[in-house]
Design brief:
single chain, 6 helices, QueA-like, 6-stranded antiparallel barrel, Thrombin, subunit H, globular
Length: 343
Amino acid sequence: MSSLVSEFDFSLPPELIAQEPFYPRDHCRLMVVDRERKTWEHRLFYEVLEYLEPPDVLVINDTRVLPARFWVYKEETGGKVEILFLRHRGEDWECLLRPSRKIKVGQILRLQKDSHFSWMVKGQNNGMWLVNPLFSPREEESLFQSFGEAPTPPYVKNRNIRLEDYQTVYARIPGSVAAPTAGLHFTPHLLKKLKEKGVKVVSLTLHVGLGTFQPVKEERIEDHNMHSEYFVFTESAAQTILEAKEKGGKVVAVGTTVVRVLESIWQRSGTLKGMEGETNLFIYPGFHFQVIDWLITNFHLPRSTLFMLVCALAGTDFMKEAYEEAIKNNYRFFSFGDAMLIK
């Protein structure tokens, strides 16, 4: 039976959209929802420690956000353009350009008037622009570090967010254009406490791409195509998770990106094993989870693929009730918002 996007809509007061990070990170609010009992309780994030015990395993995404937002100028007219670099396509970059209506193939976009950092517009591919760097690839890393800005989502109006505030404390492998935000709540101290308690912590890498920003425009959710995202999952991480499951431990995913990697691998292999590749897995109600037991996540946008994923895990009606409770209690929403533990 098909589902309509409108089934995943809800009304959110705009003042609940968090505009800046919360500190200390692990002192934000945590809503703990119980799928079986259809209940919830209000806690603080560091109290997640009370819910996990050996042989549980916590799975995190160690991707690192690139400072991928730049302001560039059209060489011919000097018109200002915002460019958000998304991913390499061979020697080219796939990107978003704003405003894009007057962009032409062959145009040169220059970082500054006299800068040799420039890109030639080559065309479009699946709604994304392709630009070709007119400088050495060896200069790319220093360019990003010197001139790039944190690629915070459009609903975060504060453009003065430091990149480190939009990174998890365990961010390691550069490649994302959006943070795996469920992980923003962890601190080194909390992770240390979990490990001391005997909870295993394993990591995978999924580079978060444009899909995080893309609304579902189709009326039937089955007609929506997810953008593919690159992931790496090691054999040692697979064995740790399988051993935990054999001992009766819970697999606790930190974020929807972790869920999509683990469930993608199981779909392809019928088990967990080391794998590297792309996933465009779209999880919505009716999906049968094979790997994860619990999920730590943020509060998501209405009609988004992320909200559909949590509805697949906990039930659409129950999730809507839980979100109503969160709104009534002034929880902070989206990237810099509060957290939910679905158990």
